[in-house]
Specification:
The complex is a heterodimer of chains A (about 150) and B (about 800).
Chain A: E1 4-9, E2 17-23, E3 26-32, E4 38-42, E5 56-58, E6 61-63, E7 70-72, E8 88-89, E9 91-94, E10 97-101, H1 105-114, H2 122-126
Antiparallel strand pairs in A: 1-10, 2-3, 3-4, 4-8, 5-6, 6-7, 9-10
Chain B: E1 4-9, H1 13-25, E2 30-35, H2 48-52, H3 66-71, E3 75-77, E4 82-86, E5 91-94, E6 99-101, E7 104-107, E8 111-113, E9 126-128, H4 132-144, E10 147-151, H5 155-166, E11 170-174, H6 187-199, E12 203-205, E13 210-215, E14 221-226, E15 231-233, E16 236-239, E17 243-245, H7 248-252, E18 261-263, E19 274-276, E20 281-283, H8 291-305, E21 319-321, E22 329-333, E23 342-348, E24 353-360, E25 363-370, H9 376-385, H10 393-396, H11 413-416, E26 422-424, E27 429-430, H12 431-441, H13 446-453, H14 463-474, H15 495-504, H16 510-516, H17 528-539, H18 553-557, E28 560-561, E29 567-569, H19 580-592, E30 597-600, E31 606-611, H20 616-623, E32 635-640, H21 654-665, E33 674-679, E34 693-698, E35 701-706, E36 718-723, H22 726-743, H23 750-757, H24 759-768, H25 770-785, H26 790-795
Parallel strand pairs in B: 1-2, 1-7, 2-3, 7-19, 9-16, 10-11, 10-16, 11-12, 18-20, 32-33, 33-34
Antiparallel strand pairs in B: 4-5, 5-6, 8-17, 13-14, 14-15, 21-22, 22-25, 23-24, 24-25, 26-27, 28-29, 29-31, 30-31, 34-35, 35-36
Helix pairs in contact in B: 1-8, 12-14, 15-17, 21-22, 22-24, 22-25, 24-25
The chains are: A mainly beta (about 150), B alpha/beta (about 800).
């Protein structure tokens, strides 16, 4: 199931910059590269939870502002030798609008947290047995359920 | 469930240390009972020698006092020697009838001094040297009698002799062997030692055998008779001929002993419920009488008692230091060598220095040092690790102080550090972690080590130490950092080259600079982009284009990011002065935005911590105060004392001077943060001696100091110029800072800048040359005069997107796919 939502216009995000989307239980960072590609990650560095949205974006990577970990925008994986990975969300640009799928990160994030290094690929994640969903709002990695919960 | 019961027999260093380690691992696992035969709690037996010689007091060498036992809920029976061990009932009983049941038993009964079977050994005044009681008796005897004989010229015997001599006795050491400390020293070193002890007035009789101890009518010793019939007067006879593992209790319980309680590599005895550590133990056929092996054993035993089950003790190479003040002596390993061993010897008897290194198969196997044992720990590490020293050989004899030259004080420490010792305080990296990374990942450069371990990647103050560890661990493979380091991995150009190119080619943007200098990466990285942005802006003020996305978040959000993603706000308070109105507004802001922490900073301002990013523009608007730039690589504070306006010592108005400096220099971005201070008299209450520019008032004017630093590595500022007027202070300080802005490398503090270009260079440009000084000051004013107050700009709506989150509203919702 997908939950696509329009979040802003492309020009609302500065090139080599990021904006945040606050949803229940977490914040999503939406990044824009120099060549206008858009990526979305959970706004938490796998190291100490730093807000990746506040980091410096370069190429397809962002450097966490707290301790300088470099995280890949495409997969949320920390650059070696650091290990760890943050959840990612599907995002696309249609007619100059940025659309975000608020549902997709659930599995990959939870799975990655369970078994960081190395971060499982999307395919590997799908083949995992379903993970019991924690009660809403209690677990820091709460999955997004419906948009009605959003402020 | 009831806790398991652990009983410890023996309250010496081994037992005590094992408990300490155990409590670290598993503080609540056991119900602990300790039996100690001595009346004292756990004390440092090694330091009895300084107590004997009067350099320390007994109370100073207590390791864990009674309170410690109480705090950890440990039942302690002092003066209570355990005499019965019933392994079937799992119960011990002491002389005074105390019994304790155990689930686990730790034997740490230590050793007993050997008592020679001489006629007269039971006379009063004949003692051994082992515990606090013996020490006390020696001290008492020294006060009453004049002559002492020490039998045994080993470590303990010599320490005893030295102590008794220090307490005024006439001391003779009788030693059976041809030279002193024959188990630790070769003949040459022993000779030097003997000479220096003789110079202190101790007499030696070598190759002398004691035949009997003679007593007087009262049953007190009065002389020692040697085999050749010679009689030495002695009212005190100290037997220090060796120690023997104390296995009495273990043997009485039929626990397997063989010159010590036999244990395996986990310190477990033949009874799996019983562990043993310390001098009472025989491990792989060896009984140790020194403290270092005993600590290693304690660690392993604690690990197993805590049920971690991962420690193993593999034996130790003992090393020795003689604890006699003024005598520097170190010995380790096989110092005698043999037919297949090589020796490197440095001998300077005139200066009292002797060093011998024994090398076998390119490895150091033993060393003896006399007179200069500072490198002992380094040699010991090479020896214990079996390091191949072929590469080090030309310098080996001269110690690790001659290896490497990076970094600053403390680098000599690297070798002597244990693996568990912390190297990088910022990132909590221990030496062991660094060594492991170097070995396992095959690292050869400082950069690699930083990347893998994070050591020295924060404040950098441990860089020298890390380089040293790298040099030791990677040996000859270590490649010191090249002279002109590239700015980052995105380019091969150094900071200097980049700065020059930007100036010569008139480059006005980060992109243009990267393009012209053929950057390897598309958008650079978080290291080079802020540097490039600073370089173009500082080189071409009002011309170059600022790129906010190339600034670190603090300079983009104009507040300081905290560990939880909130920000701190520090409004500017000119010269550390404020007013009731400002304080009212600050208080109102704190309440309105529910700011959790308000703190006075070291720079005489007020820090509001824990502000949500979206609240920043509102906070700034309501504060209605200028930005303090506490988040920026820019002028931070001008700290001042009250000066002549109020202070009875003040000779100039330092507050006013500071406020003027701050007004002249604020909004000044720089390669790194810049802090100033102005003191109103040479008492220097504003601490101007550790500031980038420090101004100190004197009767006839102002003294200007530059390149101080109170941070990472404290550096005292250097005298720069003496001027008469306030206008001159502004001009000199401004010109110096403009020079730094134009020629400093990004993230280089003034102290490093001045160290790199030289203080004389700065003086030549600023102090000696009026034309250049005026030009520099003018360029500074040109650069910052149109710099806006970033907070004011943002409350007016600039960069609004920075502070607003995107909202997903139900209206925007749309189901696709």
């Amino acid at each position: 199931m997908s939950q696509w939502s329009r979040i802003c216009a492309l020009c609302d995000i500065p090139p080599l910059g990021a904006r945040t989307v606050k949803v229940v239980g977490t914040t999503i960072a939406v990044f824009r590269t120099a060549d206008d590609r858009i990526f979305a990650l959970r706004d938490r560095c796998p190291h100490k939870g730093g807000p990746l949205s506040q980091g410096i974006v370069h190429g397809e990577q962002v450097t966490c502002p707290l301790h300088g970990w470099v995280i890949g925008l495409r997969d949320g994986v920390a650059e070696a030798p650091d290990t760890g990975c943050t959840g990612r969300y599907d995002v696309r640009v249609i007619n100059g609008d940025v659309w975000l799928d608020l549902t997709r990160s659930v599995r990959s994030t939870a799975a990655a947290v369970k078994s960081s290094p190395p971060c499982p690929t999307q395919a590997a994640v799908v083949s995992r047995p379903p993970i019991a969903e924690p009660p809403l709002g209690q677990f820091w990695d709460t999955p997004l359920v419906t948009l009605r919960d959003i402020k | 469930m009831q806790k398991q019961r652990l009983v410890v027999v023996g309250n010496g260093m081994a037992g005590g240390r094992t408990l300490e380690e155990l409590l670290k691992y598993a503080p609540d696992l056991y119900d602990i009972t300790v039996f100690g035969a001595e009346p004292l709690p756990n004390y440092n037996r090694i330091l009895l020698s300084p107590v004997l010689s009067g350099e320390q007091r007994l109370s100073e060498i207590i390791l864990n006092d009674l309170l410690w036992y109480e705090r950890h809920g440990i039942r302690l029976h002092l003066n209570s020697k355990v005499v019965k061990l019933d392994r079937t009932a799992r119960r011990v009983a002491s002389e005074d009838g105390t019994v304790a049941d155990y689930d686990r038993l730790l034997l740490a009964t230590g050793s007993k001094p050997v008592i020679l079977p001489l006629p007269g050994k039971e006379l009063e005044g004949v003692i051994t040297y082992r515990d606090a009681q013996d020490t006390r008796r020696m001290i008492e005897a020294a006060a009453r009698f004049s002559h002492a004989v020490v039998i045994g010229g080993g470590l303990l015997g010599l320490e005893a002799a030295n102590g008794l001599k220090a307490r005024g006795m006439k001391v003779t050491v009788v030693h059976l062997m041809p030279w002193l400390m024959e188990r630790q020293l070769d003949r040459t070193a022993a000779l030097l030692l003997k000479q220096s002890l003789e110079a202190r007035g101790i007499r030696f009789l070598l190759e002398a055998k004691t035949q009997a101890i003679l007593g007087d009518a009262q049953g007190r010793a009065c002389a020692v008779e040697l085999a050749d019939g010679q009689q030495l007067p002695a009212q005190l006879v100290v037997m220090a001929v060796g120690i023997r593992p104390n296995t009495e209790l273990a043997e009485s319980a039929h626990l397997h002993c063989n010159r010590g309680i036999v244990v395996n590599d986990t310190m477990q005895t033949f009874d799996p419920r019983i562990y043993a550590v310390g001098e009472c133990v025989s491990h792989r056929g060896v009984a140790y009488g020194l403290v270092a092996p005993l600590f290693e054993m304690a660690k392993v035993a604690a690990n197993h008692l805590a049920q971690y089950g991962i420690g193993r003790y593999g034996g130790s190479v003992p090393s020795t230091r003689l604890k006699v003040t003024g005598i520097d002596l170190f010995s380790a390993g096989d110092f005698q060598g043999g037919a297949d061993a090589e020796e490197i010897v440095l001998s300077d008897p005139g200066a009292g220095v002797y060093k011998k290194l024994v090398i076998k198969d390119d490895k150091l196997v033993g060393s003896v040092m006399y007179g200069d044992a500072a490198d002992g720990a380094w040699y010991f590490k090479l020896l214990r690790d079996g390091t191949n020293v072929a590469q080090l050989r030309p310098q080996l004899m001269f110690g690790d102080r001659n290896l490497g030259n990076g970094g600053h004080q403390g680098r000599e420490r690297a070798a002597s550090m244990t693996d568990a010792m912390e190297v990088c305080g910022c990132n909590g990296v221990c030496k062991g972690t660094i060594v492991k990374a170097i070995k396992e990942q095959g690292l050869f450069t400082l950069e690699d080590v930083r990347k893998y371990t994070k050591a020295s990647s924060s404040c950098g103050s441990c860089t020298g130490l890390v380089e040293q560890i790298l040099a030791i661990t990677a040996g000859g493979d270590y490649s010191p950092a090249p002279k002109a380091k590239p700015l980052c991995a995105c380019t091969e150009h150094s900071h200097g080259e980049v700065r020059r190119t930007i100036r010569e080619q008139h480059l006005l943007s980060v992109d243009a600079a990267m393009k012209l200098m053929a950057w390897r990466t598309v958008n650079g990285c978080a290291k080079c982009r802020p540097a490039l942005n600073y370089y173009v802006l500082s080189t071409w003020p009002r011309e170059a284009k600022d790129d906010p996305q190339s600034r670190f978040i603090n300079e983009r959000a104009h507040a300081n990011i905290q560990k939880n993603g909130t920000y701190s706000v520090v409004p500017r308070m000119w010269g550390g002065s404020t007013s009731a109105a400002e304080l009212h507004r600050i208080a109102d802001v704190v309440e309105k935005y529910q700011i959790p922490t308000v703190k006075i900073t070291g720079g005489q301002r007020i820090d509001l911590l824990g502000v949500r990013k979206e609240d920043l523009p509102g906070v700034w608007r309501d504060l209605d105060m200028p930005s303090g730039h506490a988040y920026a690589k820019a002028l931070r504070t001008v700290k001042t004392c009250v000066g002549s306006e109020w202070c009875r010592f003040g000779v100039q108005d330092s507050t006013r001077m500071g406020i003027e400096l701050e007004h002249a220099l604020w909004r000044m971005y720089a390669p790194h943060k810049v802090k100033l201070a102005v003191s109103g008299c040479p008492r220097n209450c504003a601490e101007a001696g550790i500031k980038d520019v420090g101004v100190i008032a004197v009767d006839s004017g102002w003294e200007i100091y530059v390149a101080g630093n109170g941070g990472t590595k404290t550096e005292v500022a250097q005298f720069f110029a003496k001027v008469e007027s306030r206008e001159e202070v502004l001009e000199y300080a401004g010109a110096f800072l403009q020079l730094y802005r134009e020629e400093g490398y990004y993230l280089e503090r003034t102290v490093h800048f001045v160290a790199r270009v030289g203080l004389e260079y700065c003086k030549a440009k600023v102090v000696a040359d009026r034309v250049q000084r005026e030009a520099l000051y003018e360029r500074l004013q040109f650069a910052i005069s149109e710099e806006p107050d970033p907070w004011k700009e943002r409350t007016a709506g600039v960069a609004r997107h920075e502070f607003e989150s995107l909202r997903v509203t139900p209206e925007a919702e749309g189901a696709r796919q």
